[in-house]
Amino acid sequence: MVLDTGDSYVTADGRTIGGVLMEMKNITLKFGGVTAIKDISFDIREGEIRAIIGPNGAGKSSMLNVISGFYKPQEGEVWFRGAVRGPVKPFQVAQEGIARTFQNIALFEGMSVLDNIMTGRLTHMKTNMVAQAMWWGAAEKEENENREKVERIIDFLEIQAIRKTPVGRLPYGLKKRVELARALAAEPMLLLLDEPMAGMNVEEKEDMSRFILDVNDEFGTTIALIEHDMGVVMDLSDRVVVMDYGKKIGDGTPDEVRSNQAVIDAYLGVSHD
Amino acid sequence: MPDQFLYAVEAAINGLMAGVLYALVALGFVLIFKSSGIFNYAQGVFALFAALTLVGIMDGQVPFAHLINALFGTDVHHFGWHAPALLGIALTVVVMVIIAIAVERFILRHLVNQPDIILFMATIGLAYFMEGFGDMMWGSNIKKLDIGIPQGGSFWIEENTAWLGGENFYGFFIDQLDIIAAITAAVLVIALTLFSQYTKQGRALRAVADDHQAALSVGISLRFIWVLVWSIAGVVALVAGAMWGSKSGVQFSLSLIALKALPVLMLGGFTSIPGAIVGGLIIGMGEKLFELLIGVPYLGGATELWFAYVLALIFLVFRPQGLFGEKIIERV
């Protein structure tokens, strides 16, 4: 893997931000006559928390869907780990080490919390089908290792009490947490969070913020997130991309973005509460 | 023991055996419904097609013989070999996998995210296409299938149960084919259960069944899973087709066994593998006992034609999700 590590730096709270992990180059995405994303470029560095913000309809979710392979941009290049990415399907993106959550939660409602999180380990399972079915040798060892990793994530996100509960019965806030757990179980190089705080109350938002910071800190996972809640974004992120009407209007540290006039006009100037 | 009671026991046992065959067909429906939410109307025709292919390969028939002869003015019908049953089965499995790939490539891929009713309609189209295709490939005459399964009543069981009754009771009559079908079904169900509970692909299959988008996001290829599950359903259809075909010949009516699977599904639930088995057994046994005890003496017989459906209807009223079906809990 060729990463430009020349200008890595250490943040105020002591985390090391490495070279460029993912780079979006001149991305344009159209749906018929509507241009959702217009010529946007930005990068995501290893170990950082990168936010994409913008008013409703700015194209944030579209951008996340381009990164995770659900949408294919008409123009532009996606670079990941120092190489340009060809035409890929969402499941291939997941296999490359990019995990994601969804704005409207996409969990396996009929399965237990534990089974849901175990599906996150699918890309890491290597032993053959027959051995797995028979619970033989290497397959048993592999299953146990996967279980250990999953249990660690369950402890980490404090969902031990609901591990056997079918997901369909959980309240919204916990579902969001299970979805995060499943994404983490894949041990992703890049974790994409689509509005992780949407629809949560203050307490749940605080919990989720803490988990995001802890995930980044403890596992060193690079995180890119979309969020509406400005306060949360500014506290969490190392750098922020601001989008409006499909265009990039700002990019930098939270402080830089806050003082950017275009951003203030488009987004911060509007009262939301 | 009174003979009347023994006859009822015999009817019950034979009913259970017939039920196993119903369950085999129902299993094919459940597999596809569970993983893709599609009610595959073509499952019965798959069983017919698989049986036709098996007979065709074993008898060394030239596929599309009529078409080839018409186009090139030749007169070919047979390759002149006679393949052993195991080779025939292996090659038929290959054909069923190719069909699964074709179904994914030419139908499912184009119907992603369409409403369920559209997919159902597509499988009706598929059913009639496969029926015609099977005719064209192997001809529409009635064929005899012999893959070496013994048939006729088991003398061993008859001899060893004769002492149960009086002078006019000659022991239970149980077809050997039914016994082998029951064992095969049991093995198949155990294998499928192990596969879906403990393997990576099985877990992926359950995930796809639950939520397509979420499955993609954890790195599961929907297309691969669809091909896999249609292949498995094809193999199950082959087993069902081979059993029914051995019993009553390979002919068009074989595809109608799918209709027998419907009440089984209503009873057992569309999403449950054990449900398909238990549902098949209940219906098989129920219709034989009902015919013997109530149908013949009081209703003039022939109750087997409708009994299964009425039983299923009663079940539907009280338990719409079936015996083992999942009741999806919607939070309000």
Automatic annotation (TrEMBL), chain B:
PANTHER family: ABC TRANSPORTER PERMEASE PROTEIN, BRANCHED-CHAIN AMINO ACID TRANSPORT SYSTEM PERMEASE PROTEIN LIVH. The lineage of its organism: Bacteria, Pseudomonadati, Pseudomonadota, Alphaproteobacteria, Rhodobacterales. It comes from Candidatus Rhodobacter oscarellae. It is a multi-pass membrane protein. The keyword Nucleotide-binding does not apply. Belongs to the binding-protein-dependent transport system permease family. LivHM subfamily. CDD domains: TM_PBP1_LivH_like (cd06582). The keyword Magnesium does not apply. This is Branched-chain amino acid ABC transporter, permease protein.
